[in-house]
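Researcher: I need the complex structure. Ligand is shikimate-3-phosphate. Inputs:
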Amino acid sequence: MSTAAPSSPSGGISRPTSLGGVLSVPGDKSISHRSMILNAIAHGGALVQGLSSGDDVISTMRCLQAMGVSIEPAGAPGSYTVRGQGPQLTEPEDILDAGNSGTSMRLLSGILASQSFVSVITGDGSLRSRPMQRIVQPLKQMGAQILGRQDDSLAPLVVRGGSLQGIEYDLPMASAQVKSAIMLAGLSASGDTVIHQPALSRDHTERMVLAMGGKIEKNDLDLVIHPAELNAVDITVPGDISSAAFWMVAGLCHPNARILIQSVGLNPSRTGIVDVLQAMGAGDSLQLVDQRTEGGEPVADILVTSTELHGVEIGGDMIPRMLDEVPILAVAACFATGNTVIRDAAELRVKETDRIATTVEELTRLGAKIEPREDGMIIRGRQAGASELTGADCESHGDHRLAMSMAVAGLLASGETTVHGAADTSVSYPAFWQDLDLLLEEAR
Ligand code: S3P
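Model: Output:
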């Protein structure tokens, strides 16, 4: 086994003799976006603490500031005061830029749909290639006028907002972004909005709207959103389980690891990765310590230690509960015994990259036995006769989660791995490489 190697974006990554330490991951990205957006359209001021420092959340903040919302740093890192404008924002002077962030574009479109002005929202090359028909269609049905490239299906989007009517809508996919866009529009509509979900996706919008005095009825997978004006609330954002997942897999799969990840959000609509790792045999090597409720969301510290995982078959309702964690789960599957089959995850094809294609391509460079399927992948794990992964040069494809997944694969593989595009981690986890260094310090 090699000793720890430099882990900076420019250096190679290799397997350290041990991996250990205590760290905190960035604030949950989904909750961070919503804490800004919902407080911006609420009445009153709010203090948000623990906000994600990732580029995606900064994109949301800049768009809101461009529409007259005052968002100011409030001392400690990650602390901001937001001054709510109420449901009507100010016409932006320029094009709104959502950067790489699908959540910014889709949720903000739900707000733009009811504004008394015309706005244009765009993003980077990845975001401009991602499907927007899924929000354009229901928002048009509610009365907004929206134009976009390719028959109104791609950004930039031009939104002429106006008065909206509530609709009854069968959500074609279990998407929290689409659900939230419709819910945000529904808050300003006349009449109720009913959404039928095909499966449960993350429910942070529902929780926050309720905490702000809005009225949403939930009946299994059906939601009824009543028009409402919101009152600002202070929010403490928990750590992002999607960021913690990288260290969970690193700790479980490395032969000599002990990692404590502090204050991670454990909303049940997000804990699919914990359930799947348990189904792979994590047992006591993945412990939720000091479980508590903070700011209306369940939170715990996560303690991971080395173990042997085995392959698993996943699909169905589990997928929306861990969709963003599939690339890092694929890394875990390479180090598990037996095969892992991932189904019903075609939504991965329309993320920041086509994550089925990019995960397969990059893990293959390290020698993984991984095959793409239209809606998922099959990974052959450690089997008699099969060799472990070997470090190689790999690419982020501009995708933050792929960059971090490949870094973890590099920590577990023999030889040296270089991740090109390492700086892309800043989209959700700007301190990723520093935290990786922290875990390596024990081995130095
Ligand atoms: C998110 C929802 C998910 C997820 C994304 C964040 C959110 O996307 O992949 O990273 O904050 O609502 P979909 O809802 O489109 O599946």
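Model: Summary of the prediction. The pocket of shikimate-3-phosphate is lined by residues 30, 33, 103, 175-177, 180, 201-202, 323-324, 347 (CB under 6 Å).
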